[in-house]
Every structure is written in structure tokens, then in C-alpha cells.
Amino acid sequence: MDEVDDILINNQVVDDEEDDEEMLSGLENDSKQDLEGNDDGGEDEEDDDDDDEDDDDDEDEREEDDEQEDDDGEDDAARMDKTATPTNGHQHDEQKAAAAAAAAGGAGDSGDAVTKIGSEDVKLSDVDGGVGSREASSSTHEASANGEVYEYYKHMLHAAQIADSYNIYPTAAIPIQTHVNALAVSRGLKYLFLGGSDGYIRKYDLLNTLEGKLSLTILQKHSLAESIQNAGILQSYWENEIPQKKSEMKLSANKTDYEPKVSPVHSLEVQSECLFILSGLQNGGITMQGVRYMEGSIAHYFKGRNGHTQIVNILRLNGQEDRLLSGSWDKRLLEWDLQTGDIVNEFKKSRSELSSLEMRPLYSSVDVSGNVNSGKENENADDDMDSLFGDEDEDEKQDAGNEPVETGDGSNGEENKEQISEESLNIVYDESVFMTSGLNGSVHIWDRRMTQSPALSLERGAGVPPWCLSACWGVDGDHVYAGRRNACVEQFDLKMPSKPILNLKLPSISGPVSCVKAMPNNKHLLCASRDNIRLYNVEIAVDASNSTTKSSKVPFLIVPGHHGGIISNLYLDPTSRFIISTSGNRGWQGNSTDTTLIYDIDLE
């Protein structure tokens, strides 16, 4: 039976194969007859009706198009393989080779592959959508977009510089139940980083916060100004961890996890593209943490044998973002190389815990390179001989000390610098000179080329208590403003550094001035006290001090929003469109409002 079944199956297979061959041959004969009938249809059926003639004409046209396409395909294959004349047996292989070459050209080197469009030969690199053209178009579009943003930043900064006044009002609030000691903002106001005394670094989506993508709740709005409607959009947060030795770690029961040692955040500085963020620790160390990649993980620990020994409360990156200035409660000021992690400079003879640090703006007209310890010399000089432009002795000293070509007055290499960096979109500073303030009230001007002592020491005026939490440069780079404990701000002129030239008085009820920030028009100054933030008109104060009669003009305007706490930071964006204020005691004394406010600025 098995043999019979096998024979039947084999016969069935043979019959099936014969049927298939007959079917294929029948189809071929039918197709040939159809083609012959179509070729002769126009001659044999001229007397048929009009509908049949139209159908035959359409079939003839389609057949001619097919034949033309076949001829074009053969010509195209012939171009792709010039070594031999194509025959009927090789046409299919040549077409496959042409298709493979075209595909390889589209994915890789598109310059060697050729295709046919109509009757013209076109390279794939010239066709819209090629890899090379897409990359070039993308890079061109990106460069054009960056150029437009850069030009917009310059235009907005120029408009802020020529403005007569500013209208500042709060629009967004970020409630935080801790003291916020530090803030940092990335390129283009993309992200906002806040560091608190609870030991956490918080990352906010600043752009969407400014656009109002999230609103405050009714309870959150209760104690805020009416103009505040938007809430901060928190994206992530992580601990400000202190690196530990393996022997010092407290392991969990499973011996794999450990309890991190967390430090309050006293200072922050972020790279413009958010590649890393730097944080100051309580033990004197500095951590470099990832942001865009491996967020919150520690990439490097700046400590060393000669590093800081106490709280690091000041961090400042240079314009190239490869050097770092750090200040600490141990009265030391260090400069680090981020490429090697080593200390490259130490600025000595700082006499107090440092409270603030700022680079000098461009285009200053005063050179401090030859004025080392001039503060002490000026104390014994004849005050009557001082003038607005400096006396002859000062000019002689400066001329004697300015034999090198590089100066700080912007006359050698600084006049062509733009005030905003095209790469980072941040304000460009004269990094050869910077200013620091101390808790004892001292204000020092440093020259980075001379690290043994400050170039200038600006001493406080008579009757001013020894205290200074914040100091800032004027926009011209020739003046310095220092906030004092007795509700006043002292203005110094580097041409006459022996004493302050003006005392900007605030109401005595306002309390100590914890933060100051100069506006770009060189007329207004933001002064933050315990009760309010005030926009002080310096020109009115100067006119009142020079006048013999008492002026009735109030020299300041109150900025709504803040009330009842210590302001730890005032951030002004490079275009002067927004201000960010944080509240915290920075590890010293005072209470916090537990709210970070974001303000809009209208030019007037």
C-alpha cells in the first residue's frame, strides 16, 4: 500500500507540473496573440464603431509607452555597465547592478551614482533629499537661526542701554520651602538651576515658565501680587552629594546601596550648553556634575591638598569656560584649570570671608594694572589735589606701570569686542580685572596678572558699619556699588578710589542691603533689602547731592513682588528682558520668603 501511495503521489506531482507548464505556455500564447491583435487592430478593424477604435488607440498608446520605457531602461543599464553590450540574458543582472549602485550612492558616496530623470543624467547628490544636501541644508539653517538669535540679543541689549527707565513687574513664582542660596541659567534661558540649603539642586524649564505653560494654584496666588500667574516647571532634582571614601560609606543591609552625604548648596555655575554644572560644598570641595548626560552624577571632585577648607560660596567660569574662580569662607580666592583639575593661581591677602565676585565690564577707561596697594597710598594723599580725571602723580604712576601693551581701558584689543558672546549668548567681560567684596565691608579690585595682592582696595566711608553682602560694577566699568548694613549703597569711582563719591540712602526701615545689580543704561541700580526691591535712579541722587536745595523727587521706585526676607541673588538676563530674584540667607543670618520670583522688564 505504501508503494502504491508513493506512485500515486509522484504521478500527481508530475501531473501538477505538466498542468503548470501548460498554463504558462497558454498564457504566453494568449499574450502573444493579444499583442499581434493589437498591432493589426488598427488595419483590420477600420470599419468598426467609434468606441472600439478609441479602445484600440488607447491600448496602442499604452503599448508604445511600455516599449519606450523598456528602451530607456536598456539605455540606462548600458550606461551603468560600459564594459559589455547588454544582451537579453544580461539585462536583468545589469538592472539589478544599476539599482544596487544607486542605493549605495544614496546611502554612502552619492557622488558616483547616476540616475536618469526624463532625458537628463542627474547625480543623486543634486537631487533634493540626498544625504549631503540634507546635512548642508541642516547646518546652514542652524547657522542662520543662531545668527538671527545673536542679532536679536544685540538689538535688545542696545535698546536696554538707551532706555530712559524700566518698568519691572513679577509674572512667575517658584515656591520653595527652603533658603535658595545660588542660581544658574543656561544658554538662551533654557534651564534654571536653583541650589537650596536643604542640599538639593533643582532644574526648571525656564522657557516654558516664561511662556506661562503652567499656572499657580489659588492657594499659591493668595499671598502674591496680582500680576503673578505663572508657576515654575520643575523637571528634575538631585542631591548635592559630597564624595566619600569607600571606607567611610554607610552601606545598607544588602551591601550594595549606601547613604549619600549631602551638603547645602552654597554656589552654582553651569556650562552654557549644560554639559556640566559646578557646585560648592560645605567641606571646601567643588563637584562637577553631569546635566545633559548622566544627570546628577559626579564627574570630578576639585579638592586637593591646597584646596578650600571651608564653605565654597563663590563660583565663576571664564568666557571660554575652561577656567574657574572660587571663593570661600576660608578667605582664599583660587583659580582652577578645568582641563587638568589643578590650581593655577591663588590671589593672596584677602582679609575677610568673600561674599561676592564680579568681572569688570568692557571698555573701562581706568587702568588698574599699575595701582597695586594704591588704596593705602591714597589714604595718605592730599584729598584737595584729587580731581575727576586723576592728578598728575596718578598719571605718572599709571604711565610707569603701563609699559606692557595690555591694558584694562579697552584701547588695546578691547574696542572690537562685542558685548554679547555669539557662542554662549552671555555678556562678555574684561576678565583681566575682577572685583570682590567681603563680610568685613572691604571691596577689592584684582588684576589677574598680579596675584600677590589686590590692585585696589576701596575703603568704606565714615560712619558706615563693616559689612557688605553684595557689590557690583557699574556698566561703564569705572564705578563700583557696595550694599551696606545701614540701609545705604556706596558708590566708588576708580579714578578716586580713596573714598566713596556718593551715598545712596534708602529708608531706614528697609534694613540692610543684601543684593545690588546695575542696569544697562548706567542710570539705574537695583537695591534689594529686607522689605522691598527698589529701582534707584542714580542721576537724581547725584543731582541732589550737588544741589544746595533739598529736592522733592523720590530717587527710587519700588519693584512689586518681594517683601519680608533676605534676597540672596539678582539675575539679569543678557537682553535685560527678565530678572530672577531668590531669597535665602546664604548660610549667614536672616529669613527667607520661600519664593523665587521672575520679573518682566518693559523699556520706557
Write the layout of secondary structure elements.
Layout: H1 2-44, H2 50-80, H3 91-107, E1 114-117, E2 120-123, H4 131-161, E3 166-175, E4 180-185, E5 191-196, E6 200-205, H5 206-210, H6 218-221, E7 230-231, E8 234-239, E9 241-242, E10 261-262, E11 268-270, E12 276-280, E13 286-290, E14 298-302, E15 312-317, E16 323-328, E17 333-337, E18 342-347, E19 354-361, H7 374-379, H8 392-401, E20 429-438, E21 443-447, E22 456-458, E23 471-473, E24 479-483, E25 488-493, E26 502-505, E27 515-518, E28 524-528, E29 533-537, H9 538-546, E30 556-559, E31 567-572, E32 578-583, E33 595-603
Parallel strand pairs: 3-7
Antiparallel strand pairs: 1-2, 3-33, 4-5, 5-6, 6-8, 9-10, 11-12, 12-13, 13-14, 15-16, 16-17, 17-18, 19-20, 20-21, 21-22, 23-24, 24-25, 25-26, 27-28, 28-29, 29-30, 31-32, 32-33
Outline the structure in words.
By secondary structure, the chain is of the alpha+beta class. The protein has a domain at 354-564: Lipocalin. It is 26% helix and 28% strand. It is built from nine helices and 33 strands. A five-stranded mixed β-sheet has the order 7-3-33-32-31, with no helix packed on it. It is globular and about 80 Å long. Residues 7-14, 34-53, 77-129, 374-392 and 394-413 have low confidence and may be disordered.
